[in-house]
From TrEMBL, chains A, B:
SMART domains: HTH_ARSR. CDD domains: HTH_ARSR. This is Transcriptional regulator. The keyword Transcription regulation applies. GO terms for molecular function: DNA binding; DNA-binding transcription factor activity. Residues 1-95 form the HTH arsR-type domain. The keyword Transcription regulation applies. The lineage of its organism: Bacteria, Bacillati, Actinomycetota, Actinomycetes, Streptosporangiales. Keywords: DNA-binding, Transcription, Transcription regulation. It comes from the Bacteria. Pfam families: HTH_20.
Length: 97, 97
DNA sequence: ACCATATGCAAGTGACCACTTGCCTAACAA
DNA sequence: TTGTTAGGCAAGTGGTCACTTGCATATGGT
């Protein structure tokens, strides 16, 4: 579970996808492909993006909802918050003996 | 730079090492090896751990100081804090129109 | 000087990962 | 039904990664 989150974050393309979804939720696969191509210059195939989305969904970072022949993707930051407090101590501000 | 941090966090052994250093800073390579073996059941070679530490150091997550023939390792969480606020919005607590 | 300790460097190997290509299914429109 | 659009499944490939093995270096003790 935790492993899935970190593995998902390890790839720069997947982080770009998270950026895109953070900026605009509910995009379809083709929308994401188009925006990665036009705005980030990424020339990846549709299947490549689809596989990345599958990894992100397995990690719980992206949730999907089907609607007709479309499949919309939403960002879910909850796994990030849960996983990142691991080494960040509850900030004892320097004077806590 | 950012890529190095996420790549470093992608491996479970490296995360264990960060756990160890979070609990006790300033351990040498052999100390880390011993504690990973006894407390986590990890039977890795010294070189494996050494290479992991090199990755963590390249990411800035671990800082080292030499002292004679010893090399002590310290945790540095600053790259984590800098990198993880990327998708976690500055927590607008629900009533911020 | 000698020897043990603590660490570094380098090549080799097996597994995993990102990406592609090709075909297939499902939904909407004419 | 036929055609088009959105998406899924599966096999293949090149590259990267984690780990090992073997040798080398450096520090400290005696």
């Amino acid at each position: 579970m935790v492993d899935d989150v970190f593995k998902a974050l390890a790839d720069p393309t997947r982080r770009r996808i998270l950026d895109e979804l953070a900026e605009r939720d509910g995009q379809s696969l083709f929308e994401i492909c188009a925006r990665l191509a036009t705005r980030h210059g990424l020339g990846l195939s549709r299947q490549a993006i689809s596989q990345h989305l599958a990894v992100l969904e397995a990690a719980g970072l992206v949730q999907t909802r089907r609607q007709g022949r479309y499949k919309f993707h939403d960002l879910n930051t909850e796994p990030l918050e849960r996983v990142m407090t691991r080494w960040l101590r509850p900030d004892a501000p320097e004077g806590t003996s």
